[in-house]
Amino acid sequence: MRFGLVHRVMTDALAVLGILALLASGQFGPWVSGSLIGGLVIALLIRDVWEKYPALKHFDAITLIGVLALQIGRLLFDPNANVLDVVIEFAAALQIIRLATRKGAAHDQQVIVLALLHLISGTVLGGGLGYGLCFLGVIIVAPGALVLSHLRREVEGNYRQGARDRTGLPVDVPRILRSRRVVGRTFLGVTCLLSVPIFVFTALLFVLFPRVGLSLLLLNRGHSGRVIGFSGRVDLGEVGVLRSDPTLVMRIEMPNLPDPPPARIPLHLRGAALDAYDGRTWTQSESWKRAAENEAGIVPIDDRWPDSALDPVMRIDLEPIDPPVMFLPPYASGLRLRTRATVAPEPQAMAFKGPEGELRYQPIDDRGIKYDVFLSRKKTPSFRKLPSGERWKYLTLPRNMSVRIRELAAEWTKESTTSLERARAIENHLRTDYRYDLASPSGKDPQPLDHFLFESKRGHCEFYSTAMAIMLRTLDVPTRNVTGFVGGSYNRFGRFYAVRQGDAHSWVEAWIDEYGWLTFDPTPPADAAPKSEIVGVWAYLRDLIEATSQRWDRHVVSYDLSQQVGLLNSLTSRYRRGGSKGTDGPRGRAGLLVVAAIVATAGGAALWMRRKKQRAAAASRAADPRSASAVLATALYESLDAAMGARGVGRSPSVPPLRHAQALVSMSHPLAEEVLELTEIYIAARFGGVTISDEDRRSFERRVKSIRQPERPSQQAMTLPAS
Questions:
Q1: pTM for the full predicted model
Q2: Helices 3-23 and 30-45, interaxial angle, to 10°?
Q3: What integer best gives the mean pLDDT of the chain?
Q4: Where are the transmembrane segments (predicted)?
Q5: Which of 471, 478, 458 is nearest to 413 (CA)?
């Protein structure tokens, strides 16, 4: 594998993961996200273009200044611009500019630093499952990218300092980047395995470090990606298109489910109720909000307190929604907001009451809200109050209502004697005599309700609920129109019901004197049911991803002090039980077997890798007949190097062998010629492929020995001749 290519791929991967960690938060709009992705793709495709065109030498600085000016202009002239969002967008743009114009290892290190900063920013913006996958990828890629970046920086640093290789030639950086000998599979495997201890250390810090509230960061702000909620106004004929939106709104865990649980379940989760209809639009005749009663975290419904010890509990995890409405089933007796336990003071969500029994919450961040709903054991309706002074507003009819609507209501209920029977009769007629249609033409008619009942006879849920509410009012039965979610589809992996934006629905609450406000749904049952797929490959993958996302949100994003204490208590109690029983029990033996299996697997893998390395080395020696002479030549020159050191003409490690020999020749050193000849023999065998025979080896060794220990003149030669 080529060193330069592997380094570039790992650096690019780290940069991509950093930007994806930002985009996974959903904080940025489609235009910003699309621009970042497009710019990232272009930057990755550009390779060393800027160095070829002198005119583009300062392109990076000019582009950076332009982006900075644009972001400052947004802060100055856009009242909706958020400082944090603008800064993070600028950091992402800075990464793209650096990727497109990088020149050498110094810029690559800047890319790595920016990627790590993006990863940190992603924890503030979202921290969802997408961020978790990016985080895992960064942990795997970062060690290798950092090591390779350091190696490349060292190579380029030696080149700038004029270092030369063993042949005396200057360091050739492009040749090293093209080399396949610097980086191998073992190197990449070992560097990537460094992610294991890093991940373990990070996980321990996460589990053991005390939880600190996000509010300390002072980053609470609006969220551009909130799903559509239910406000105090519904224009007939416009809301039906929500049935085609698969966006997840909430996850619901139901108590006392049968085995197996039903694939779909009708819940009629009430969001907003509207009492005034003008012939086309439903609105709330009152507009107010006040803090709901709260005792020990429990909020009563319609001033009726639940029995928290006996009433079944429905758990709801609601995604960020705008307006921030909380949804309740028809038989709710109270709710409890789930709070976050942290070391530092953390603001908690508060519940507020509105008109028609509406409940809202005060958002404190972009994580939605989690709450428990207490269900009445006797199926008592949630709302059982209707003051006599307010009865009239639930009987008010639009001024321009057609007379034949009143006549049709009387005809359908002519055999009914009670309010409940009249409601059932109208509900049944609408369910059986009319057809569900999201594209009903009645919405464009000046009299949409009249057109639906007598002309088109097809429409979506708002037409059905409006028809039933108005027809009951003509029969002196108080009614109001309700918007919310009809139900959800069961997730086989997470064991919860997933409610989607497409499950938005409209139905009727009618006041029945003996019972209170009862729920009626005149939409045909097959069309009112949740629409998401429950079979097939797509449904299987969707359920798996959503269940994984739920667990990530619950055990990572929402991990707080109470979960931390519970986990530590669980580990402590398990350790005590294990210590008292020893390892004689089945669990102890199973644990020892698991440990033994892990050790045996690791030992076998290490032995296999060692044998593979030995076989590869043997094959390399057999495949290259010159390698033996090259190794021998290196050993012989090392002995020559030691001999020169003994004679006081040692070679500096930074000086190539040939240059050192030539320097001795230029100084006319007595050993120069001998050293030069031996050095040339070494270079020819080491780099030229010349084979060294046994006779050549012995000759080389004798000559080195003579350099180290020169022969001394004989005694006769030193004796003066006689006179």
A1: 0.67
A2: 180
A3: 81
A4: 28-46, 135-151, 187-209, 590-609
A5: 471
